[in-house]
Amino acid sequence: MARTGTGGQQGISGVERRSIDYIPLNERHGKAWEQGPFWMTGGMVLPSLLIGFIGPSLGLGLGWTLLALIAGMAFGTLFMALHANQGPLLGLPQMIQSRAQFGARGAMFPMLMAVFIYIGYNVFYFILCGDAVSVVLPGGKVWYIVFSVIALVIAIVGHDLLHTFQRWSSYFIIVVFAILTVVMIVHYPVHGAHPVASGWSFKAFLVQFAAAGGYQISYAIYVSDYTRYLPEETPQRKLIGWTFVGAMVGAGWMGCLGALIGAYIKEPDAISALHQVGDYLFPGFGAIIALSTIPAMVGTSGVNAYGAMLTGATIVDGIRHVQPTLRMRIVGLLVVSVIGTVLTLVMPADYLNAFNTFLGIMVYLLVPWTAVNLVDFYLVRRGHYSVDDIVNPRGAYGQWSWRGLTAYFAGFIAMIPFFSLSFYVGPVTKALGGADFSFVVGLLVAGVLYLLICRNLRATESYQRGSGAERQVVAL
């Protein structure tokens, strides 16, 4: 693979000024290993703990829950990590790259879906942060606003502060949750506590597997946003590996703790359960555990706001061209933060049921997109893209691309008979006793169909640089 230039290692000075524009080679910095702690912190949040509650709540025993959880997360994390290489090679945020598969306006649908996911996650993060701090301090919903503002400030400073905040948070979280893990194992399995969930259910196993896999796949919309500043020559296997390990360890660890809690505590609440288990070590340690969950969720809320801003700006740019200025970044972040805060304030108290429904919808919307995006990158164009035409909504990729849209909606429609939601259960899922195979169906149908209808599409686009120089880069 030819290379022309190397990345700088100085980092961003002050507030980041770039957004949906291309990152020049002389501004590239960072190393592949830094993706490990970044994604680990992103996974070590309370929603990951909630994923582990699902199996026991359906009567699935601890061993089967752990197997379904780990297998599902490994499956989903693989798809998520494969997006990592797109950042250094293209120098662009994740979702704007969808223009190559769907067209500048056709990509608006998956982009709207991404904004929904970003803001939806922040709603649950702010609620859980408020619950955590309420263990020791009063304040109620005012904490939602406080944490929203902190996340907003981190996102405004931008890419490098997000990486730094997540990386340093990971060191603290590892220590605290390592202690908690030992306490839980000693108190429950070692001391022979009687589990409240100990059975086997094929339906419950698949529900747990699908939830874990879908949860990890949902991070696919984030990845290039945080790898696009890496030098172009960053080793591809290392980058995928560090992204996979970080995301898998962080979310998997929390999910396993959730499974352990759910297996021994009937109808657990995330914060109260951590408080209860932590106090087994000494009174007050439970409060420390609850508070220690806040930095990761606040930092990840900043990550979500940043991603929503990038994606929202790309949507607007597809309708009317916008200049990627600092002012645009700040205005976009303010809009995203206000929407997220308002939704948090009106969210019902029973947020766990709402979270499970949100997770299901998110999987159904996201799976066909990630299939199309990865098949295009690795099998169809094989890394050959014109960056100039991606950032230009009137470029060579057009306004609407029938190939990507056809594959996406075919994958989504194929999933409908397999849906399993609180308000709708598909006929195939009913016939299978509730087993949800939808994500497998969506991946296969969207991916295979896109590959078939693109079989005559040749990867002939030149890889454009901001300087106007043309050359091709092959990803694999």
From TrEMBL:
InterPro entries: Pur-cyt_permease (IPR001248), Pur-cyt_permease_Fcy2/21/22 (IPR026030)
Keywords: Membrane, Transmembrane, Transmembrane helix, Transport
Membrane topology: Multi-pass membrane protein
Localization (cell): Membrane
Domain of life: Bacteria
One matching Pfam family: Transp_cyt_pur
Sections of the chain in a coiled coil: none
Segments passing through the bilayer: 38-55, 61-82, 102-121, 141-159, 171-190, 202-222, 242-265, 285-309, 330-349, 355-379, 400-425, 431-453
UniProt keyword Transmembrane helix present: yes
Protein's UniProt keywords contain Transmembrane helix: yes
Family: Belongs to the purine-cytosine permease (2.A.39) family.
Protein name: Cytosine permease
Species this chain originates from: Planosporangium thailandense
